[in-house]
């Protein structure tokens, strides 16, 4: 279950589902499209939108690599998704620290 009410949590949940499975789980791509739409419609920072779009592209790359049994491409896509997961979390933590500092 992915939290669509909080797109930042939702993206991380999608990444967790994709990276924890040997195949791209059903519904993940649609969930990412919904999250990206939510980010755009709520005027989220463009960096968040672009990062979420990149995650979506990498999920597609992973799915195609898995379908074609292309192990080097699977490894590359998983590596990219792991890096994007770290970047997603880092951006949220850094953004939270910045927001907290500005509020004080």
Task: Explain what this protein looks like in three dimensions.
It is a single chain. The protein has 104 residues and is an all-alpha fold. 80% of the residues lie in helices and 0% in strands. Helix 2 (28-41) runs antiparallel to helix 3 (46-67). It is globular and about 40 Å long.
Layout of strands and helices, then pairs:
Blueprint: H1 7-20, H2 28-41, H3 46-67, H4 71-103
Helix pairs in contact: 1-2, 1-4, 2-3, 3-4
The number of distinct β-strands equals 0
**CA(first)-CA(last) distance:** 35 Å
Q: Output mean pLDDT.
A: 85
- Rounded to an integer, what's the Rg over CA atoms? 14 Å
Summarize the biggest pleated sheet.
Answer: none
Strand content: under 5%
Q: Low-confidence runs (pLDDT<50, min 5 residues)?
A: 96-104
Q: How would you sum up the global shape?
A: globular
Instruction: Report helical residue fraction.
Output: over 70%
Order of helices and strands: HHHH
Structural class computed from helices and strand pairing: mainly alpha
Q: Helical stretch count?
A: 4
